[in-house]
Amino acid sequence: MTHTYNISGMTCSGCQAKVQKLLSGVSGVTSVNIDLASGQAKITMDSHVSTARLKEALSEYPKYQLIDALPDKHDSLAAVEEETKSWVETYKPILLIFAYIIGITLLVEIQYGEMHWMRWMNHFMAGFFLIFSFFKFLNLKAFAETYSMYDIVAQKWPAWGYFYAFAELGLGLAFLTSYKPLFTNAATLIIMSVSIVGVLQSVLNKRKIKCACLGAVFNLPMSTVTIIEDLLMIIMSLVMLNLLL
User: Fold this and answer.
1) Mean of the pLDDT values across residues 134-145?
2) β-pair type (65-68, 2-8)
3) In whole angstroms, how far apart are CA 61 and each of 29, 216, 234?
4) Which residues pair with 29 in a beta bridge?
5) Are strands 65-68 and 29-35 parallel, antiparallel or unpaired?
6) Single residue among 31, 58, 84 that ends a domain in this structure
7) What is the mean pLDDT of residues 96-101?
8) What is the four-CA torsion angle of 225, 141, 235, 194, rounded to 10 degrees?
9) CA 70 to chain CA mean position, Å
């Protein structure tokens, strides 16, 4: 069952992520989808959860006030639009980013006059980490709060979300400058392997939460696409480590 609520007091994506995390922690709640612009939250439950319990989850933050929303025909229309939204439309930002990175790195190889796969992977990984870290830095606090909703390390140590953004930036610069390839690829393998655990848990448990891969800029759902992103970096780092050793 899914119910709609109005929530006041949210002023930024950081507020959105915090409220979503608090409500997602309520027993019986399976997913929380918040529209910051309208101040509405669609909460899906596997068993009835009273409004009082939802309000109690937000009690430590009095500025967030939750009330039942009256049925609105626009809600059903929005739900239909969301359900009929194509896969390409949903993941357009990520698809464009990957297309840009692939295109630019292939152009670099053309300038060399030959295709060197290890050099290409090095440049691809540099582009991946630099671009993805850029979007996280646009709103670092909101990213860290969203990331802590599913990452196994950030859940226990919230500061990891902040560190992770800097780690991505550092890896991007290391790949770009070919700094200590053995160390850089080993670090990539460890960091991305840890990161993919929380993603796998969320996808396998069918939790409908926001993916933080592009920070708080785009409202992208957690899915197999996120798994593929992390898995791609893991595979590339393994291949490069195998070539280096």
Assistant:
1) 90
2) antiparallel
3) 19, 21, 39
4) 45
5) unpaired
6) 84
7) 94
8) -110
9) 31
Asked if residue 81 has pLDDT above 60, the reply is no
For helices 117-137 and 92-112, the axis angle rounded to 10 degrees is 140
Boundary (domain end) residue, out of 27, 61, 84 = 84
**Strand order across the 65-68 sheet:** 29-35, 40-45, 2-8, 65-68
Residues 6+ apart with CB under 8 A from 59: none
Q: Which residue range(s) make up the domain with 61?
A: 2-84
The CB-based long-range contact list for 170-177 (8 Å cut-off, 24+ gap) reads 171/125, 171/129, 172/125, 172/126, 172/127, 172/128, 172/129, 172/130, 172/131, 172/133, 173/126, 173/130, 175/122, 175/123, 175/125, 175/126, 175/129, 176/123, 176/126, 176/130
Q: Which helix (H) or strand (E) holds 204?
A: helix 181-204
SS3 62: coil
Question: In this structure, what token pair is assigned to residue 220?
Answer: 């992208």
